[in-house]
Amino acid sequence: MSHIGIDAPAVEVRALVRDFRTRGGPPRRALDAFDLTVAPGEVHGLLGPNGAGKTTLCKILSTILLPTSGSAAVHGLDVVADAKRVRPLLGIVFGGERGLYARMTAAQNLRFWAALYGLGRREGRRRAAELLDRVGLAPRADEPVETFSRGMKQRLHLARGLVGDPRVLLLDEPTVGMDPVSAHEFRDLVESLRAEGRAVLLTTHDMAEAEALCDRVSFIDGGRLLRCEDPRVLGELLSRHERVRAAGVPAALAERIAALPGVERVRETGPGAVLVETDRGGAALPVLRTLVEAGVTDVSTAPPTLEEVYLHLIGERGMAVRP
Ligand SMILES: Nc1ncnc2c1ncn2[C@@H]1O[C@H](COP(=O)(O)OP(=O)(O)OP(=O)(O)O)[C@@H](O)[C@H]1O
């Protein structure tokens, strides 16, 4: 039995740097002096635009990529020096088709993985059945994976990640492509993992998902930690920067909208079509009212994108946006 640090954080990353060589140019820094601590039983969101460094971090934690400098540990075990003892503590769930055998049934896939984890035949069968039940796939256990929907494959990925009974789960975009019902069920599953004291590190572009699931969220950009926050901050950001789209808006009305309190700017996106950006919670409501009272019916609201929220976060910190 390995002496894992039960009292140690589930994940502890200190001053982590990872450079990649680029042809001819200077090395590309994918992670830059990155710090992160995740407690057992914590669901931690890694939020960031494309290329922020999320996958690089997950790869270093899963011992498949070496850091350039700095350290990363799982339950007190260093991912480089103790890689062999770190691996059984981890469950890694990357979405998509990778890692599943399409022609094999769900149960066969899991039994195969159970065998790789050294479980005997009978124990492997028991574990596969238990996990299929847990992720709601028991009724489809004996059907080939190629007949599964994307959401079902994602759930099977999670079951696979749980075969080794890991203490820490790394989930990369786990609900991409899932319908809302499956995504909701998936969130319940993550809740139950937390209740069992497992730590979950979840990468996502989806701010609403991060808000619903996570105990804390780290905003990453250009390999650096911008902020580590309570997820309620996400809800505030989403409502503070809500947007209103409208069509058939005369220029004079657009000017009136621009003068309303909390309206950051009004952009013309086509003839008579506008996108109104707000920077104060509740500011979308008077915009909607003004539009509707003026007889505009083609109106909708939308949350800001992750990229827009990032621009605001970076602006607040006075940081430069990296290329
Ligand atoms: N093998 C590699 N060689 C060179 N550069 C790399 C390599 N892997 C990653 N990078 C670079 O490191 C940076 C971080 O990439 P990473 O894949 O970690 O981002 P990410 O946050 O996971 O993005 P996404 O949301 O698109 O998956 C990017 O600039 C990327 O181009």
Q: What does the model show?
A:
The protein has 323 residues and is α/β, with parallel strands linked by helices. It has two domains: 11-235, 3-Layer(aba) Sandwich (Rossmann fold), CATH 3.40.50; 242-303, RRM (RNA recognition motif) domain (Alpha-Beta Plaits), CATH 3.30.70. It is built from eleven helices and 14 strands. The chain has helices at residues 54-61, 83-86, 106-116, 121-134, 150-162, 180-195, 207-213, 232-240, 251-258, 284-293, 306-317; strands at residues 11-20, 28-38, 43-47, 69-74, 77-78, 90-94, 168-172, 199-204, 216-221, 224-229, 243-246, 263-270, 273-278, 299-302. The strands form three sheets. Strands 6-7-8-3-9-10 form a six-stranded mixed β-sheet, with helices on both faces. The radius of gyration is 23 Å and the shape is globular. Residues 318-323 have low confidence and may be disordered. The structure holds adenosine-5'-triphosphate (ATP). Adenosine-5'-triphosphate (ATP) binds at residues 20, 28, 30, 48, 50-56. It is found in: Cell membrane. This is ABC transporter ATP-binding protein. One of its GO terms (molecular function) is ATP binding. Belongs to the ABC transporter superfamily. Residues 11-247 form the ABC transporter domain.
